[in-house]
Design a protein that fits this description.
The protein has 246 residues and is of the alpha/beta class. The chain has a single domain (2-8, 26-92, 100-242), classed as Rossmann fold (3-Layer(aba) Sandwich). The chain has helices spanning 2-8, 32-43, 53-60, 73-91, 106-117, 143-151, 172-176, 180-187, 192-204, 228-240; strands spanning 16-17, 100-104, 124-128, 158-164, 213-219, 241-242. The protein has a four-stranded parallel β-sheet with strand order 2-3-4-5, with helices on both faces. Strands 1-6 form a two-stranded antiparallel sheet. The radius of gyration is 18 Å and the shape is globular. Mean pLDDT is 85; it is low at 1-13.
Length: 246
């Protein structure tokens, strides 16, 4: 991460960069498929609905996953705030008033879940290519409760939503092995960019207290896999910049 920050960040002059502790959460296994299945379980806010289940299984069946391997997002949130965060505070000089949650794809969807349900849990939220098509855009149902919380001054998060310009297309390696019906199903899952832009506009229209802000960015020429390094660089810039008051 440190190397990525030095090489990839546009913050080279004129802007102060705060020191930071970067925490990654993984699983105690060397088996990629097991870790991916556990990640899916922890990050998805709910189990797939019957009408979305075929789409879900099309992308998850190779893991041996079922509909029960989803819906653990709220438990995972409580692990982070009730167990992991206090442990880190005991061992490191953590600033409880300045913390960022970043996530990509399913983790981006998890980031939105936490934002909408616990907006004061973090001060900055960065959702990279969030899997908004999951359960036919069910995450959008959380906007009204979030809107009420922000308008009542319960939180004033900084929000960055990003997407890859090629997010609606499967990577070439995947495309080569997909049947025509699978390609059509992939395309019908929804517009990642369109969903991100729509959500950004919706959140930006909310009248929040001082400090509340919403930004969006699309990475040109990247797909949902290749965009990760660029997203991390942008996230570090956004989270760690000390910008002058506007």
């Amino acid at each position: 991460m440190a190397g990525l920050w030095r090489l990839g960040s546009p913050l080279t002059t004129g802007v102060e960069r705060r020191p930071a502790i970067i925490v990654g959460i993984g699983y105690p296994t060397d088996n990629l498929w097991v870790a991916t299945r556990l990640r899916q379980r922890d990050l998805l806010p709910e189990k797939p609905t019957p009408d979305y289940l075929p789409t879900f299984l099309q992308s998850a069946s190779f893991l041996g996953a079922t509909a029960d391997d989803a819906g653990g997002a709220e438990q995972f949130y409580h692990f982070i705030v009730d167990e992991l965060r206090p442990r880190l505070a005991q061992e490191m000089p953590v600033n409880a008033a300045n913390q960022t949650l970043w996530g990509h794809r399913y983790a981006g969807l998890f980031t939105l879940h936490v934002l909408f349900n616990h907006p004061a849990a973090f001060q900055t939220y960065i959702a990279s290519s969030p899997s908004t098509p999951f359960n036919n855009r069910a995450i959008f149902a959380g906007v009204p409760v979030f809107k009420a919380a922000i308008e009542h001054g319960e939180a004033h998060p900084r929000i960055l939503l990003t997407a890859a310009s090629l997010a609606n297309y499967p990577p070439a390696a995947m495309l080569a092995s997909m049947k025509p019906d699978d390609v059509l199903r992939f395309a019908k899952q929804g517009s990642m960019i369109g969903n991100m832009m729509e959500l950004g506009l919706t959140l930006k229209a909310i009248k929040g207290p001082a400090g509340y802000s919403v930004s969006r960015y699309v990475f040109d020429g990247e797909n949902h896999m290749s965009v990760v390094p660029a997203s991390l660089s942008r996230a570090l810039t956004f989270a760690l910049s000390t910008l002058p008051e506007q």
